[in-house]
Every structure is written in structure tokens, then in C-alpha cells.
Amino acid sequence: MDRNNIPQHIAIIMDGNGRWAMAQGKPRTFGHQAGVDTVRRITAECTRLGVKYLTLYTFSTENWNRPADEVAALMALVISALEEPLFKENNVRFRVIGDMDRLPADVQEKLKGLEERTAEYTAMTMVVALSYSSRWEITDTMKRIAKEAKDGKLDIGSITEDTLTERLQTSFMPDPDLLIRTGGELRISNYLLWQIAYSELYFCDTFWPDFTEENLHKAIESYQQRQRRFGKTEEQVENEETA
Ligand code: IPE
Ligand code: IPE
Ligand code: MG
Known about the structure:
Layout lengths: L8 E5 L3 H6 L5 H22 L3 E8 L7 H14 L2 H7 L1 E6 L7 H13 L6 E9 L1 H17 L10 H5 L12 E4 L18 E4 L9 H12 L9 H9 L1
Parallel strand pairs: 1-2, 1-5, 2-4, 3-4, 5-6
């Protein structure tokens, strides 16, 4: 792994908790609990490597359709897992994205408090996507843009890609350089659709509770072997690199 070419922003679809638990004859929520340990390890490792943004898909809009007891267990886990020492010890700032209005009041309060108390930490920003889906985010942003236009604050002719980018919940961070999905599925599941237009994708079969620092290094090594062309030719990119 090249320590001088670490992705600035890593996004992760943390999948496979349920199957990991079921394979051991345990309830699915046991897998979610184990997944919290992985979050701790991977957060610490990303900070050590110099990653600046780590965006974790924790609960999707569609996950609200899961059995009520699993949803309740996940909400309780969010409350208990987001302990301040993790952020303080690693100098990590906490941010949340998603449809906060759908979350229980105590969860909303916890998240808001943690955002405030970690606002000064500078090593890395950990972004938790909770009650989040990309289509929801884009639709919500479109509504606000429409209102601005209706109120005469925005000229429709002046709308560009940046108009949307600047109003998305993710506006405070750059697009992901690397998107990792654990758990074997080869899909995006409504995550950061706008933002991953040019991200490098990495899929692995490892269930999230088993995902190690070594697995993370492998994903970064794969990222480092790729040439990001952003639509240009190989030759153009090589010339830019030597310039
Ligand atoms: C990911 O693990 C965590 C959440 C979606 C909350 P899953 O719960 O989806 O685990 P699998 O995919 O069923 O194994
Ligand atoms: C995606 O996992 C959402 C999170 C990891 C939070 P899912 O398990 O919900 O995705 P699908 O249903 O397999 O696409
Ligand atoms: Mg899943």
C-alpha cells in the first residue's frame, strides 16, 4: 500500500451483519452488535492512514421496512454505539446525513449532541448515513431548489450541477474516491448516487463483522492500482501526472 496515495474520502456499504449472525445460529441483531466493533476498528485505522472522510451506510430509507423489532434494536444500537471516546481518542468529527425527521426523538438528540461536541475534532470526519437514501436526498434537495426558484431567489437559467451539489446534505465534503461494499452483493442500494459518479468501486464477500484492517488495506491497494481518467484518455492523464 502506497502511504502517499490514500483516498481522501472512503464510503462504505456495511453489509452482511444478518447473514454473519444467522450462519452461527444467532439472531440478526447479534450481527449488528458485532458490526459496531468493526466500525470502531475501521474508524481508528482510517484515521491512522490519513483518510479525511469516512461515510458509513448505517440504515437506509428502505430499511424502515424491516421487522419492527430489528428496527428498534438498530436504533438502540445507534444510541449506545456512538460514544464520545471513539471520537475524542481518534480526533474524529461526527456528522450525520439522512431523513432525521423519521428518527425517534432520543436518537435525534443524541446525534445532534454528538455533532456539536465533536465539531472541533480535525483528524477525520465520520459521516453516518442514517434513514438515508440517495433518491430521498435528491428529491428533498429538488424541492428546496424549486422553492428558491418560486420565491425568485434562484434563476432557472443559472442552474448548474453545482446548484444541486451545493444543496445536498453532503455539500460539506468532497465526493468519495473509493466506495467499498462488504457482504458479497454487487449493487449500490440507493447510496450516494450523485456523489459516486466517478468513485472507484470495490466489492468483497467478507461480511461486515469479519471485515479487518487488512481487508481495508486490500481495498485501498486495489484503488491505487487504477487510473482515474474522468473521461479523458490514458495518455492525457499520464501527461498531466508528469506535468
Ligand atoms: C447491514 O447488514 C446492516 C443494515 C442494513 C442495517 P444486513 O442487516 O443487511 O445484513 P444481511 O445483508 O442481511 O446479511
Ligand atoms: C444496504 O444494505 C444498506 C446498509 C448497509 C445500511 P441492505 O442489506 O439494506 O441492501 P439490500 O437490501 O441487500 O440491497
Ligand atoms: Mg444486507
